Amino acid sequence: MILLRIFSGFFILATFLPLIKWDHWWIRVFDYPRIQKFLINLVLLIGWVTFFSQFNVEFWIWVALLLSCEAFLIRKVIPFTPLGKKMIQKVNFDQRSGIHLIVANVYQYNRQYHKILRLVEKESPDLVFIVETDQAWADAMKELEFKYSECIKIPLDNTYGLLLYTNLKIDRQETHYLIDSEIPSLELDIILNDGQKITIYAIHPTPPVPGENSVSTERDAEILIVGKKSKANPLPSLVIGDLNDVAWSYTTELFLKISEMADPRRGRGTYNTFHAKIPIFRWPLDHIFLSKEFGLSELKVLPGIGSDHFPISLKAVLTKRNTTDTLQANGDEKKEARQKISNGLD
């Protein structure tokens, strides 16, 4: 019974700790495993009912607290199931006005290059964005330069290298170091097959982890800077990459409100992309967000490539009507976003 009390107390705390908006990693890390916490709290509830012989005040307090946890977690996770409301409606894919993308964190120290090459050959996307790529990865991906007419290569040894390949014309390209001089991001204007122009923001912000970055300040600021850029951009836009943040976190929701973009996961599923090698620790870290001009044709998580991430694939089409139901920021949320960006730039 002592262990039951200890575990119950810890997971009750772990459930509600993310409500504290501090940027410290030891708080933000509890944003990630919400489904896992739901299942563990359910087991703990069963444990109290099964092993506690006296239904006294202590019993009812623990049960009430654990039921509160379950209700809170259900409210947070349901939007990312088929029971939730879709933010973007499905439309038929049109190669002329559409784009097919693959986003893949290949894990810099993974040397199974052939797996991503084989996957790209099979899927044949219009654009491939690969992160955590050093010079060895850039050399190994040379084969893609024969398949794709445009490529951008920023190989780095710090796990923040980027490679991008596309067979669509790049009309404008900019490399930014929005927060950190060692962490690049891309901003591209791309022309679709029917001549329409769109913008792609490709990012990979730093995660809040001990030993690398003890707070999420820089990650949050970069995500929100790009959200504001997309909102101000008159062109249809996509934000893609490993954001090192889960779809249901407060920061990601704030990004959706600031950018007024759509998350294709909502109303469909979690589409977990991390951790590829540890099934019990999986959550959605890799993202593709769409502005209101797009409709969704397909979203899927692709087979493993030897990395700790699964690649994610999306097909989207520019539509003549708004197929999205996006969120909007109120005055306080806009102020909070400005403050988070200011903190990240300090």
Describe the structure.
There is one protein chain. The strands form two sheets. The protein has a six-stranded mixed sheet with strand order 3-4-2-1-11-10, with no helix packed on it. The longest helix has 21 residues, at 57-77. The model has no long low-confidence stretch (mean pLDDT 95). 42% of the residues are buried. The protein has ten helices and eleven strands. The chain folds into two domains: 2-80, no CATH class; 98-345, 4-Layer Sandwich (Deoxyribonuclease I, Chain A). It has helices spanning 2-16, 25-28, 34-51, 57-77, 113-123, 135-140, 144-147, 217-232, 250-259, 331-345; strands at residues 98-105, 127-131, 150-154, 162-166, 169-176, 185-191, 197-203, 237-242, 286-290, 294-301, 312-318. GO terms for molecular function: endonuclease activity; exonuclease activity. It holds the Pfam family Exo_endo_phos. Keywords: Endonuclease, Exonuclease, Hydrolase, Membrane, Nuclease, Transmembrane, Transmembrane helix.
Task: Based on the model shown, name its key terms.
five-stranded mixed β-sheet, globular, alpha+beta, six-stranded mixed β-sheet, 2 domains, 10 helices, Deoxyribonuclease I, Chain A
Write the layout of secondary structure elements.
Layout: H1 2-16, H2 25-28, H3 34-51, H4 57-77, E1 98-105, H5 113-123, E2 127-131, H6 135-140, H7 144-147, E3 150-154, E4 162-166, E5 169-176, E6 185-191, E7 197-203, H8 217-232, E8 237-242, H9 250-259, E9 286-290, E10 294-301, E11 312-318, H10 331-345
Parallel strand pairs: 1-2, 7-8
Antiparallel strand pairs: 1-11, 2-4, 3-4, 5-6, 6-7, 8-9, 10-11
Helix pairs in contact: 1-3, 1-4, 3-4, 8-9, 8-10
